[in-house]
């Protein structure tokens, strides 16, 4: 039976090519939407690595073209801003950071180590960042005032980066070799959980913290001040806060946003594209489904003689029904197989390294099932029409 279906499909290869191409492109689009959705869902259930409740971010615009430009006066002004925050009873503690959680700006570094490529996000933070953001420390220690006297540079890394660079070894007090080419003596003093600055939908990645000193003119000033507020602090506090900051730095401007608000913005930024893509895919599926119904309907109409002869030779209604659906399943298999061959190249060539093999496999399997379900439903009505062809109707074509 299967061999016969393949023969029927091959004999009508020109008319079937359009159907197969529709199925192929639908499968590619459906795979993209489903895989991205699975990727986001998988990321969402992972630990975030920090707490955003009751934390506000103060973004500082220092009126310079780039973060790499600063002066000792700018560093001093930033330190005064930090000290001014301690005068507010509403603020439990404050910290400085080059990049804020849920922010869109970040610093990345790519280094070669032991013959492999090590990529990481890098953030420059002050000593109180751990407490303000409630970052879980799993090994070693965090930055503190005692690091002022060190003649080497301390760094804190996340668990993923520790595994990638040091494997099963304890990284504490070890030299951080990926930066050895810079000439600095860099050593790991602590390991935190898998910190995800981009938020719940961001993938797990390597992360490294550098220590930032607000009293050192050689350290560029942080562009963000994160404050931990006491429970019950209202939004009206923002006006008093900005007024005090503006009095310290009259030439600068400030934007104050709760991390809960920044979280909402980050969610929209990541979800809106997938919603739009999902709507496009939904309309495409509807158009493909209607197109398949139309093409198959025309196919059945053109094959009344063939179907009538089969009925005259004893084919049952069920046989005709299964023949039409079987041909469609064969066509679907060709389209899906072609799409799968192309899609499998992406992980093999490491073109989508941020997506795990498990997420890729789930997206592929679900996309296959959806396409088969779509084509099956689209073939129900034309196959039902084929069963209505009577043996006598074949005589009209003699």
Word description of this protein:
The two termini are 27 Å apart. It contains ten helices and ten strands. It is elongated. The strands form two sheets. It has a six-stranded mixed β-sheet, covered by helices on one side. The chain has a four-stranded antiparallel β-sheet with strand order 2-9-1-10. The mean pLDDT is 84. The protein folds into two domains: 2-45 and 271-397, no CATH class; 63-251, no CATH class. The chain has 398 residues and is α+β, with helices and mostly antiparallel strands. 30% of the residues are buried. 49% of the residues lie in helices and 16% in strands. The protein has helices at 2-11, 13-44, 72-85, 129-133, 159-166, 237-248, 259-302, 304-312, 317-348, 357-387, and strands spanning 55-61, 91-97, 107-113, 116-125, 137-140, 153-158, 186-192, 207-211, 224-229, 253-258.
